[in-house]
C-alpha cells in the first residue's frame, strides 16, 4: 500500500468520506429562508487599513440585507463604499453536528427612501449595542450562496 492509500484508511486523518457526513449547496430560496431564522451575522469589507469584519444585527427585506448603525461607527464606511461587501450568517447545532452558512455578496449604501425606512420589518431591526443608530444601511445582493453540513 502506498502512502496515499494509507492516509485514506488512517483513523487519525482529517480526510472525511461521504459516509461520515454531507455538505450540500443550498438554493437561493433556501438561503433566504435560513437568513430569516436569525438576526445576527457578520459583514466584511475592505477598509482603509485592510479587511474589516464585524458582527451585526440585521433584517432581510425585499431580498436585501439591512443594518442600523451610527455615523461614527466603523460600519458607517458602508454608506458610500465603492467595493464589494460580504455578509455571512450561520447556525450550528454542535451536538447534532449540523449547521449551515449563507454568504451574500453585494454592494452597500445608505437608505434614504422614506417609504422603505417606514417598513414594519425595519422597525424590528434593533441593534444589540446601545446608543442611537440613526443610519440604515442596505446590502444589495448580486450573489447569494449557502451550504448545509451534516455529520451522519
**Termini Cα gap:** 28 Å
Number of domains: 1
Measured by DSSP, the beta-strand proportion falls in over 45%
Topology as a string of helices (H) and strands (E)? HEHEEEEEEHHE
CATH superfamily: Electron Transport, Fmn-binding Protein, Chain A
Number of helices: 4
Principal-axis shape: globular
**Helical percent range?**
10-25%
Summarize model confidence as the mean pLDDT: 82
What is the CA-based Rg, rounded?
19 Å
CATH topology call: Pnp Oxidase, Chain A
CATH architecture: Roll
CATH class group: Mainly Beta
| Content-based structural category | alpha+beta
- Kindly state the number of beta strands: 8
Low-pLDDT stretches are 1-18
Largest sheet: 8 strands, antiparallel
Any overview of this molecule?
By secondary structure, the protein is of the alpha+beta class. The protein has one domain (28-145): Pnp Oxidase, Chain A. 15% of the residues lie in helices and 45% in strands. The chain is built from 4 helices and 8 strands; from the N terminus they run αβαββββββααβ. Strands 1, 2, 3, 4, 5, 6, 7 and 8 form an 8-stranded antiparallel β-sheet that branches. The radius of gyration is 19 Å and the shape is globular. It starts with a helix and ends with a strand.
Describe the structure concisely.
This protein has four helices and eight strands.
Q: Topology, please?
A:
Blueprint: H1 3-9, E1 21-25, H2 28-35, E2 40-47, E3 50-57, E4 59-61, E5 64-69, E6 85-93, E7 98-110, H3 114-117, H4 120-123, E8 135-151
Antiparallel strand pairs: 1-8, 2-3, 2-6, 4-5, 5-8, 6-7, 7-8
Amino acid at each position: 500500500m502506498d502512502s496515499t492509500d494509507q492516509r485514506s484508511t488512517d483513523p487519525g486523518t482529517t480526510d472525511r468520506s461521504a459516509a461520515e457526513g454531507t455538505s450540500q449547496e443550498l438554493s437561493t430560496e433556501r438561503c433566504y429562508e435560513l437568513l430569516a431564522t436569525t438576526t445576527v451575522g457578520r459583514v466584511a469589507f475592505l477598509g482603509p487599513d485592510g479587511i474589516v469584519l464585524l458582527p451585526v444585527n440585521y433584517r432581510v427585506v425585499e431580498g436585501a440585507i439591512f443594518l442600523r448603525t451610527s455615523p461614527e461607527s466603523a460600519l458607517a464606511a458602508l454608506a458610500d463604499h465603492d467595493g464589494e461587501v460580504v455578509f455571512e450568517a450561520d447556525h450550528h447545532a454542535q451536538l447534532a453536528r449540523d449547521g449551515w452558512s449563507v454568504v451574500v455578496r453585494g454592494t452597500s449604501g445608505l437608505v434614504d427612501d422614506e417609504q422603505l425606512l417606514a417598513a414594519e420589518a425595519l422597525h424590528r431591526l434593533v441593534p444589540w449595542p446601545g446608543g442611537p443608530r440613526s443610519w440604515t444601511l442596505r446590502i444589495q445582493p448580486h450573489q447569494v450562496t449557502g451550504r448545509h453540513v451534516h455529520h451522519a
